What does this fold into?
Amino acid sequence: MAKDKLTIWCNATFPAEITAKLKAAIVPHELIFPAKLAATNLSAGEADPNLAHADIAFGQPDPDQVVKLPNVKWVHLTSAGYTRYDTDRFKAAMKARGSAFTNSSSVYDEPCAQHLLAMMLANSRMLPACLGDQSSDRSWVYADTRYKTFLLQGQTVILYGFGAIGRRLVEMLAPFKMNLIAVKRNPTSCPGVKVVTPKEADALLATADHIVNILPASPESEGFFNVERLAKMRHHAHFYNVGRGTTVDQQGLLACLETGRLAGAYLDVTTPEPLGADSPLWSAPNCYITPHIAGGHVNEFERLVGHFVENLVCFTSGKELIDRIV
It folds into this structure.
């Protein structure tokens, strides 16, 4: 059972009013900070001597330092992604001392799924093309635009990465009566979606109208969407990436767009980030880029803190933690 008063270390950069809410919400526990806060919740945290005095780490602590500090009984990330912590060494250390490790998937599944849905609907209704006409010569391209729009009903979507975001997107797409296929290394049944292995998915790529990439960064996923895999996709298919830029061969994707091998790409993540102004992806045919904002929303910080506080109640009362990884 957790002790009555806990020391919570936090290196997240929040607006002053959100930090004040966090301090008030965790009473009677103590909140301490490092000398240098993380720039964003995607930034790798630096080792900090203050962490040695903490029971809980909230934010983006240095994983190597956490391994060496048995006093840290719970790590809660301010992100859904946890690539830096997804190592045998880190997870084994946490398990060996009975420590917990959670992320903020419940904060980011909704905005990321909505972002993907927005991309798919914008694509189907030719909104980017119309915006392009409006911002250029303001031509009234009636027939060529009207008769290229399409309905989502009956189309096939393959989702690579079937975690919280993928499951929420499946719920959002259900009313459109699409053929939904999710890819997992270890398939399990899920209502409304067919779950297959990556090998089985390769054989299905030629049947997909939409390929959704939600893969996290890892040695196994690096360059997963290579030239060979991209070439298996249908000419009219659209590719969406809200996972990580490292999972895609961007030169191969560029070639597919320039030759018409793919109908379009919607990218929220790239490599590197920020994407250089001279990158040919900016001007590639039917390539639409957003600056890693899929998880963003106006009350993001408030929801991050709310999620942590809710989990803190679970931690101190011995209940099951939300978004637990270890």
Remarks:
- The mean pLDDT is 96.
- The longest strand covers residues 156-160.
- Residues 52 and 69 are 6 Å apart (CA to CA).
- The first helix runs from residue 16 to 25.
